[in-house]
Design a protein that fits this description.
- About 5% of the residues lie in helices and about 35% in strands.
- The protein is built from one helix and nine strands; from the N terminus they run E-E-E-E-E-E-E-E-E-H.
- A hairpin with a 3-residue loop joins strand 7 and strand 8 (about 85-95).
Length: about 120
């Protein structure tokens, strides 16, 4: 998974993600519209093994998996993990993370971001 995130990427005790999420050109296991971009791999503690875990973000999924791969649309993305027994036990936020730009688009001259400039009134 190191091709998805930088070595310094971490999840704080409060669920805040820091570090860099690399841009991925093609993630075939994701649906159209989410098959390129940024992804966060998450491995849950073994104490959740065998439990139905619900992850709520832009979409909701329930499974008994300990390993999750989340599509992170932007730094305002938020994911909650919960079980029926424990309720919400983890909320991930990405405000402190860096999302690496798409290098192909940037190299082609396509603006990654635009800045509106203010002009002084005379």
């Amino acid at each position: 998974m190191s091709d998805l995130i930088s070595e310094d990427t971490a999840i704080g005790a409060d669920g805040a993600v820091t570090g860099t999420l690399h841009y991925v050109e093609s993630m075939e296991t994701f649906p159209e519209g989410e098959n390129s971009g940024h992804y966060m791999p998450v491995t849950l503690d073994s104490k959740y093994a065998g439990k139905d875990i619900t992850v709520k973000g832009k979409k909701t999924a329930t499974a008994q998996d300990l390993e999750w791969l989340l599509y992170v649309a932007d730094t305002s993305s938020k994911f909650t993990f919960e079980t029926a027994e424990d309720g919400v036990f983890l909320t991930l936020t990405f405000a402190g993370a860096t999302l690496e730009p798409n290098k192909i688009m940037a190299a082609a001259g396509t603006p990654v971001a635009t800045v509106k400039r203010r002009t002084a009134k005379k």
